[in-house]
Known about the structure:
- By secondary structure, the chain is α+β, with helices and mostly antiparallel strands.
- The chain has a single domain (2-105), classed as 2-Layer Sandwich (Translation Initiation Factor IF3), CATH 3.30.110.
- It has two helices and three strands; from the N terminus they run αβαββ.
- The protein has a three-stranded antiparallel sheet with strand order 1-3-2, covered by helices on one side.
- It is elongated and about 90 Å long.
Amino acid sequence: MKKVFCFGLLCVVLLLVLDCTITTTVPLVYTNNENVKFQILGEIKHESSDRTGYSELLRAARALYPDCDYVIDIMIDQKKVTKFFFFWKVGESVTNTMRGTAIKYIR
C-alpha cells in the first residue's frame, strides 16, 4: 500500500512539473514580431457588389502599389440601399467596401 501511495504521489508531482513547463513554452506561431520593419505605402479602398475577401483587397492594393507585400488595419463596411416606387419596395442593392493600409516589408 505504501509503494502504491509513493508511486501515485510521484506521478502527481511529475504531472504538475510537466504541466508547468508545457504552459510556459513559446508558441509555435509568433505573429507579433516588433523586429520586422515596414514602410507604409498608403491607404487602399476596394468596393464590390459581390462578396469580397482579402485576396481581392490585396490584388487592388498591388494594382495601385506594385511593391505592396501586405494589407493591414482592414475595415469592412456594408451599405444596403432599398429602392422604392411610391410606397412599394422595388429592390435592394448591397455594396461591400474594404479599406486598409498597404505596406511593404523592408528587407
